[in-house]
Design brief:
It is a single chain. Helix 1 packs across helix 2. The two termini are about 35 Å apart. This protein has two domains: about 1-130 and about 210-220, Rossmann fold (3-Layer(aba) Sandwich), CATH 3.40.50; about 140-205, Alpha-Beta Plaits. The model has no long low-confidence stretch (mean pLDDT about 95). Strands 2-1-3-6-14-15 form a six-stranded mixed β-sheet, sandwiched between helices. It has a four-stranded antiparallel β-sheet with strand order 8-11-7-12. The chain has a three-stranded antiparallel β-sheet with strand order 4-5-13, covered by helices on one side. It is about 30% helix and about 25% strand. A hairpin with a 2-residue loop joins strand 9 and strand 10. By secondary structure, the chain is of the alpha/beta class. The structure holds ribose-5-phosphate. The site of ribose-5-phosphate (R5P) has 18 residues, from helix 2 and helix 4.
Length: about 230
């Protein structure tokens, strides 16, 4: 059953990726997301490059950078970029109002920088990611290690339940050398308000609530493509 679900989801991810890649134009600087859905888009871009498309890209994680390079996609250092023409990334959850939770793979900080720099930030998803209210997926929060207990306390003061992310029995370490706290706030009625409360906590580098950062969400559902913008 799980294998069937995965192949259905993968078909939807691929369909959404193909649709999004159509918006990339010659000579664009393209922001590349991280995760299984973004990987479909990176592979599609590589196909278009074989057909003559010329782009440069910025990567939202070390893994994405390695993948892009392996496909011959030229990478620019993110710190040199003042603007990005288009970005394509996945999400863990989204609402029709274009709010997202991201960071399931721990790449949220660089993804947020890329989305913020993008003139056209496109999110691609399978149909399982659409929700009425964010929050069933816990909010990933990247925290500077020395502030982690402080941030833990602050999250609990906001009514969240904080869990330090662990991978293979070790603390999960981001590409930036930080920890991830996964915070359960229950279903989030006011995501913009929660985002701004989290923004005020010292020690948080970035949180996975992406509010007003997305131009368009392309979701595949079965054979259909739905666009939210
Ligand atoms: O940190 C990871 C990113 O925010 C991903 O875009 C997100 O977790 C979705 O990943 P996937 O496409 O694998 O479901």
């Amino acid at each position: 059953m799980e294998a069937i679900d995965k192949s259905k989801k993968d078909a939807e991810k691929l369909a959404a990726a193909k649709e999004a890649v159509k918006f990339v134009r010659n000579h664009d600087v393209v922001g590349l997301g991280t995760g299984s859905t973004a990987t479909f888009a990176i592979k599609e871009l590589a196909e278009r490059i074989k057909d003559g498309l010329e782009i440069k890209a910025a990567a939202s994680s070390i893994k994405t950078e390695e993948l892009a390079i392996s496909f011959g996609i030229p990478i620019l250092p993110l710190e040199t970029l003042g603007t990005i023409d288009i970005s394509i990334d996945g999400a863990d959850e989204f609402t029709e109002t274009l709010n997202l939770i991201k960071g399931g793979g721990g790449a949220l900080f660089r993804e947020k920088i890329i989305a913020s720099l993008s003139k056209n930030a496109i999110i691609i998803t399978d149909s399982s990611k659409k929700v009425n209210l964010l929050g069933a997926f816990t909010v990933p929060i990247e925290v500077i290690p020395l502030a982690y207990q402080y941030v833990f306390n602050k999250i609990e003061e906001l009514g969240g339940k904080a869990t330090l992310r662990v991978k293979e029995s070790q603390k999960f370490i981001t590409d930036n050398g930080n920890y991830i706290i996964d915070a359960d706030f229950g279903l989030i009625n006011e995501p913009a308000q929660l985002a701004s409360q989290l923004n005020q906590i010292d020690g948080i580098l970035a949180h996975g609530l992406f509010i007003n950062l997305t131009a368009k969400i392309i979701m595949a559902k079965g054979d259909h493509i739905l666009t939210f913008q």
